[in-house]
Amino acid sequence: MAATVPSTGFQDECSALVDELDLSEQQKRFMRARWLNETVWLDGKATQSQQRYYLLRLVAIVGGLTVPALVSLNVTSDAAAAITWTTFALSLIVATAVAVEGFFRYGERWRHYRRTCELMKSQGWQFFELAGAYARYRSHKAAFRAFATAVEGLIAEDVDVYIRQVMREKGSDEEPEQEA
HEC states along 139-165? Predict the structure, then answer.
């Protein structure tokens, strides 16, 4: 899922923190490839989905309020044809915005990506500080296996939830069939 992502302040800061940990080079590479890059990717996808969701919802709301106002105008001049065509076009734009959001489910994607991103960040900060689930460990080396397991669990859960809930066909509450 993770792809090459542009560097961010968060990414730079965490990469520097990873460098300072008493871990093997392989463990540091894991942290960058599986935890840090995935977290940055999720953050970018959450932001992108939120922007698209807000844009489409804003078009639907503003257009949805404007169309009835245009329809209610009682114009009998040459402007009547222009208002009629404007109303028609705006109705199509509103319907398209609602359909696109319904199809791509940007609102659900945004919330899904944001939730997973914040859980990944939380795991990272707890690991860096040896707090929470990692408080019983005396070193990052000792805690690393638990951290790697937690990160892989979050990634697996992310994929599972994304496929089962975010990508399900609208209106279908059936579980996908499992192959034997």
Answer: CHHHHHHHHHHHHHHHHHHHHHHHHHH
